[in-house]
């Protein structure tokens, strides 16, 4: 009876998850729902796990963000800092829990929880995932349907290539299996427009609440050699002008997939573009780049496009390497900035050594360069190392 009460509490909490949380995936995705060594009854199964991840980071110049190699954080022009910096941390460590319940009426119901230590307060613990699966529905906080988990290269960097779509949101989704290989999914997701009202351009434009959820969908086809996914997002960006609510329509498309090369190597590709969707991209979320005030007296969507290519090379069962290149470009019509375009390049190369089934060590080199909306350029170089223990 107590375990059934615990399950009911998890289901209720999963349905009231708060807004967006940006996310990155690094050699760790939500655990598969396997329940060996679990607390098992005739109807309820529980498994607790997680990972300890220790990162050592050395920045040669410019970039001073302690956790992620975010190209938007690269200082440009006279703001560049050539002082080196070293840091060591374990904030990317995670805890997770799987729960499964065999319902007589609804079949198997599963729930997943995961958190890491990027929150606020003394403990710094935050929720990454908390959702429940009931038949074809998933309810709670999980990856956006605009995300393609299987098109993310194995990197140590917490962000990865700049156009990576790594967003978690509260949502209600429905998945229809079209065949053994193909599926179609739709979702309504919690909206969070990231806009930048510019008072010197038009002081009558301000932020406001969003009125309708983001609509997302994807089609995914998976075979023996790899997979392909086409995803879209449609959203409405609300803003106030003279205390009157106005809105812009925003949309984005993403095409991604992977292809097995030779016996164990993997080629990963992604291309993304849209208008007013920068908050879905890992390097730009939180920056207010969905839209900005223009001199025409309205809010104007910022256009963004780019992509990345990655190649995962298996030298042996215990030694692998990943090479990644990414490019991104933003275009705006704000009119007060000297340049209409922002572009950035990202490159990384790493080497992983699997000491054991549960222990991995790795080293990675990263380089990025950018040109900002003022026409100034900058670059940054980093080396980082990692020890990962899954339990």
Please give the largest β-sheet: 16 strands, antiparallel, barrel
CATH topology: Porin
Q: Given the helix and strand composition, which structural class is it?
A: mainly beta
Number of domains as seen in the coordinates: 1
Find the count of extended strands (DSSP E, 2+ residues).
Answer: 23
What report would you give on this structure?
The protein has 391 residues and is mostly beta strands. It contains one helix and 23 strands. Strands 3-5-6-7-8-9-10-13-14-15-16-19-20-21-22-23 form a 16-stranded antiparallel barrel. A three-stranded mixed beta sheet has the order 11-17-18, with no helix packed on it. It starts with a helix and ends with a strand.
List the helices and strands and how they pair.
Blueprint: H1 2-14, E1 21-22, E2 39-40, E3 44-61, E4 85-89, E5 94-103, E6 107-116, E7 126-134, E8 137-143, E9 167-177, E10 182-189, E11 195-196, E12 205-207, E13 214-222, E14 226-241, E15 244-261, E16 265-275, E17 291-293, E18 299-301, E19 303-314, E20 319-331, E21 341-356, E22 359-371, E23 377-390
Parallel strand pairs: 11-17
Antiparallel strand pairs: 1-9, 2-3, 3-4, 3-5, 3-23, 5-6, 6-7, 7-8, 8-9, 9-10, 10-13, 12-14, 13-14, 14-15, 15-16, 16-19, 17-18, 19-20, 20-21, 21-22, 22-23
């Amino acid at each position: 009876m107590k375990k059934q009460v615990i399950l009911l509490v998890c289901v209720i909490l999963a349905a009231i998850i708060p807004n967006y949380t940006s996310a990155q995936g690094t050699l760790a995705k939500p655990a598969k729902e396997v329940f060996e060594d679990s607390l098992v009854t005739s109807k309820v199964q529980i498994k607790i796990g997680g990972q300890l991840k220790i990162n050592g980071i050395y920045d040669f110049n410019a970039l001073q963000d302690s956790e992620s190699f975010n190209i938007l954080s690269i200082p440009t022009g006279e703001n560049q800092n050539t002082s080196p910096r070293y840091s060591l941390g374990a904030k990317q460590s995670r805890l997770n829990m799987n729960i499964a319940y065999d319902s007589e009426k609804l079949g198997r119901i599963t729930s997943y929880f995961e958190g890491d230590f990027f929150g606020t307060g003394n403990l710094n613990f935050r929720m990454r995932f908390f959702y429940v699966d009931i038949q074809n529905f998933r309810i709670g906080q999980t990856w956006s349907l605009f995300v393609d988990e299987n098109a993310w290269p194995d990197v140590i960097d917490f962000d990865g290539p700049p156009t990576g779509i790594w967003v978690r949101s509260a949502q209600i989704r429905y998945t229809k299996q079209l065949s053994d290989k193909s599926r179609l999914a739709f979702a309504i997701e919690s909206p969070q427009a990231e806009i930048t009202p510019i008072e010197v351009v038009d002081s009558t434009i301000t932020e406001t609440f969003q009125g309708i959820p983001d609509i997302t969908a994807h089609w995914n086809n998976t075979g023996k050699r790899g997979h392909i996914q086409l995803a879209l997002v449609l959203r409405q960006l609300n803003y106030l002008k003279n205390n009157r609510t106005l809105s812009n329509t925003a949309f984005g498309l993403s095409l991604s997939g992977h292809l097995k090369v030779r016996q164990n190597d993997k080629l990963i590709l992604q291309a993304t573009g849209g208008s007013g969707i920068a908050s879905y991209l890992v390097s730009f979320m939180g920056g207010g780049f969905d839209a900005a005030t223009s001199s025409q007296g309205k809010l104007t969507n910022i256009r963004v496009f780019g992509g990345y290519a990655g190649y995962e090379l298996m030298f042996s069962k215990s030694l692998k390497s990943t090479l990644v290149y990414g490019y991104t470009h933003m275009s705006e019509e704000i009119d007060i900035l000297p340049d209409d375009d922002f572009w950035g390049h990202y490159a990384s190369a790493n080497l992983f050594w699997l000491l054991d089934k549960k222990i991995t060590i790795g080293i990675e080199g990263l380089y990025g360069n950018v040109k900002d909306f003022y026409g100034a350029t900058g670059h940054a170089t980093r080396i980082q190392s990692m020890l990962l223990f899954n339990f």
